[in-house]
Design a protein that fits this description.
320 residues; 17% strand; binds 5'-O-[(R)-(carboxyoxy)(hydroxy)phosphoryl]adenosine; binds zinc ion
Length: 320
């Protein structure tokens, strides 16, 4: 199975066998391109995907040591994501599949993140509760089988990764800032500042107030003081996000009666979060952030669209 992923600012292709062995995982990140704008610029992302998608697919096939003739199907992210960016990957995947009369497997990006757990050498067996925390999404999912999930809760405003990125920007750490906060927080005191996270009803999240709390704290400090206490600010801010994520995930496990907990998505790379959930199943680090291996993995458990019916298939921006 060849997977293609272009929903945001990573152009990715991957090759996975039917039993979940990863033969190739190629990711071209556009982060540097968008850094000067402080966030992903959709039209810039689409154009870059257009330049990168063919070479990235070629490299994935080369690394896997397979040709198009060895593939059984082509998998591609259909949504949710940036519509222009998605269309580039979808069109490329359609063309590749069509050229070989192969079936196409349209994949939900969120299902892809969950399916990063279904790969060798330790494929996770449902049922489990899954925290999916990325730059675009923060969701609690109930996973009963490998073909999908039910949503238990989600963020009412910012995603957890977005909270990391906005905090990083306030602390002058550049974009995307999750990993930078993670690094800096190791040198700081997580109890130095108290940043409360709003508790909303049910199993939902809210992170927008936290970002405002950091903004006010930074504004009330002298610039030298901010400079001097940057690590404490990062550590305290990270502590608040991680605490909210862990609390709600444990609540979800209790409510559903499911004992197994899994964490996926870009924020699952966070070292404090990984440390706070020692018994959780964690996606391997290189599969936490966006990649196409997870898309090919999800495709193994998704309906296939036979040749050539998929040529009219559209991408979708939101999960609706
Ligand atoms: O899953 P992902 O690559 O893209 C989306 O689907 O959104 O997640 C990217 C997000 C960014 O917000 C980034 O800051 C965050 O994951 N991230 C981290 C870490 N590494 C990446 N957040 C906290 N700690 C990290 N180590
Ligand atoms: Zn993602």
């Amino acid at each position: 199975m060849l997977g293609v992923e272009t929903s945001c600012d990573e152009t990715a292709a991957g090759v996975v066998t039917g039993d979940g062995r990863v033969l190739a995982n190629v990711v071209a990140s556009q982060a540097d391109l968008h850094a000067r704008y402080g966030g992903v610029v959709p039209e810039v992302a689409s154009r870059r995907h257009l330049e990168l998608v063919a070479p990235v697919v070629t490299e994935a096939l080369e690394r896997a040591n397979v040709g198009l003739e060895d593939l059984d199907a082509v998998a591609v992210t259909r949504g949710p994501g940036l519509i222009g960016a998605l269309l580039v990957g979808l069109s490329a995947a359609k063309a590749l599949a069509w050229s070989r009369r192969l079936p196409l497997v349209p994949v939900n990006h969120l299902h892809g993140h969950v399916a990063s757990l279904y790969l060798q050498p330790d494929p996770l067996e449902p049922p489990f509760v899954c925290l999916l925390a990325s730059g675009g999404h923060t969701l609690l999912l109930e996973v009963r089988d490998r073909s999908g999930f039910d949503v238990l809760g989600s963020t009412l405003d910012d995603a957890a990764g977005e909270a990391f990125d906005k905090g990083a920007r306030l602390l002058g750490l550049g974009y995307p800032g999750g990993a930078a906060i993670d690094r800096l927080a190791r040198e700081g005191d997580p109890e130095a500042f108290s940043f409360p996270v709003a508790r909303v009803p049910g199993l939902d999240f809210s992170f927008s107030g936290l970002k405002t709390a950091l903004l006010y704290t930074v504004r009330d400090l002298e610039p030298e003081e901010v400079e001097h206490r940057r690590a404490d600010l990062a550590a305290s801010y990270q502590r608040a996000i991680v605490r909210a994520l862990v609390e709600r995930t444990l609540e979800a496990a209790e409510k559903t009666g499911l004992e197994r907990i899994a964490v996926v998505g870009g924020v699952a790379a966070n070292s404090e979060l990984r440390g706070a959930m020692p018994d959780a199943a964690l996606a391997p680090l290189e599969l936490c952030t966006d990649n196409a291996v997870m898309i090919a993995s999800a495709a193994r458990f998704s309906p296939t669209v036979p040749y050539p019916g998929y040529l009219a298939l559209d991408a979708y921006a939101t999960a609706a």
